[in-house]
Amino acid sequence: MPPTSPPGAREDDCLFCKIVAGEVPADVVLETEQVLAFRDINPQAPTHVLVVPRAHHPHAAATAGADPAAMAALVAAAAEIARLDGHEDYRLVFNTGAGVGQTVFHTHLHVLAGRPMTWPPG
Ligand code: 5GP
Ligand code: ZN
User: For the whole model, what pTM was predicted?
Assistant: First the structure.
């Protein structure tokens, strides 16, 4: 049987683990002990930043279960990023599952701001 990684351990084939490790370049806007935030490569709004926990978990609920403080740190970082970009209003999104558009299976919080947004989302 192949060895299984401990929860939160780096995954070798994970793009966001590589960005956290500095192995793939990114436009970093905020760094803390627990999270890294960088601009989305395909922005959907004037501000479109991804906030990721340094520890690898496949989606938000897994991070919340393993490390609630990391979850709080993601939201706090998102608020700070919106403030730094000069936005009072912003949208936070966790896509969870391929069926709703998740393409990178390392928890990430989308911070979107700077244009009018409709509801419900598409
Ligand atoms: P998801 O679709 O999983 O919710 O979000 C993944 C996001 O990662 C997408 O918005 C996509 O544009 C972004 N993305 C994919 N590859 C890269 C990359 O190499 N660098 C950056 N900065 N963003 C990426
Ligand atoms: Zn990862």
Answer: 0.96
